Amino acid sequence: MSLKPVRVTHESAGRPADRVPSTQVGGGTFSVRLLAMQEHDPDAVVLSVHGEVDLLTAPLLREAMLPVLERQRGLVVVDLSEVPFMDSSGVHVLVEALQRLGSQNRRLAIACRESGQIHGLLAVVGLLDTVTVHRSRDGALIGGEDRIRPEPESPARRSRRYVANERSTSRSSQPAAGARRG
Fold first, then answer.
1. Distance CA 40, CA 148 (A)
2. How confident is the model over 78-125, as pLDDT tens digits?
């Protein structure tokens, strides 16, 4: 599978957007590289992200995604395999992209390490149920069998959720302290 860097110009900025320059942020380096796929789907685009995605770097990721969301067709793959940490700011950028692509009848796929922090975050916020997540960039591009599926809820977790729900229900049904009974 061959990928090559592509040059996309973001009209409002009037400058190339094929790569957000490597940026030193908080002692780390952040970069996004825009790649085009050549073999299976010539309209597919990959955003290869390196470094932490947080409150400081999420705007850079959003900026790199704008030309893809505005001008490209086809599948968009966000490769987070080289992202050791992402917070809710990065999740927000992904959700925005998912919404925009959905309104254009386009798909978003994510590549990340299955046992990493990104995978755990996507699971906690429910994105594993909403977007296709793969173990590799190639798998995301071809819709391969390396898809990461949400884990079914374990009986222990279901039990803890039931107990917590029962506690909150029983507290809300008790009269407030000092309330008059009738």
1. 21
2. 999 999 999 999 999 999 999 999 999 999 999 999 989 999 999 999
CA distances from 17 to 12, 83, 93 (A): 11, 20, 17
- The fold for domain 3-171 equals Transcription Regulator spoIIAA (3.30.750)
89: closest CA among 178, 135, 25?
25
Question: What separation, in Å, do the N-terminal and C-terminal C-alpha atoms of the chain show?
Answer: 75
DSSP letters for 55-92 = TTTHHHHHHHHHHHHHH--S-EEEEEEE-S-B-HHHHH
Report the distance separating Cα 163 and Cα 150, nearest Å.
Answer: 23
Domain layout of the chain by residue ranges: 3-171
Residue 90 token pair? 């990065």
Answer yes or no: pTM beyond 0.85. no
Lowest mean pLDDT among 38-52, 78-92, 124-138: 38-52
